[in-house]
Amino acid sequence: MKKKLIPGLLITAFLFSIVAPTGFAQKxxxxxxxxxxxxxxxxxxxxxPKDDSEQKGYIYTTKHNIISTDKYYYNxxxxxxxxxxxxxxxxxxxxxxxxxxxxxxxxxATKGQKLILQADTDVYSVYSEGxxxx
Length: 134
Hints:
The protein is mainly β. The protein has 1 helix and 9 strands, in the order H-E-E-E-E-E-E-E-E-E. 13% of the residues lie in helices and 38% in strands. Strands 2, 3, 5, 6 and 8 form a 5-stranded antiparallel beta sheet that branches.
């Protein structure tokens, strides 16, 4: 019985992997230097095409000088404009949450749509870099 079960399970797993749709959000690097007195304290990443149907953004900050009194935010947007549609709203970034932020989209983004990561500072100059998945 075991001799028939294992090959059957392997075949089933293989067929499922062929038939099941796959999709993974693209990893996109970012590097921001923002100051309140330049460009209204705002900077934008390059567009990141959405390759899956999951309605969450994942932001990993790997290097930064963020301090707890900063008013520093990320925001996933439709385009590089302050007035463009926001998908997450402003996400406050602190030293404790900077390493990984997961935020659900308030507005639905569609597969293939290009999204932008916005950085915004209101108090101090901030440097941050890392990668994100839209």
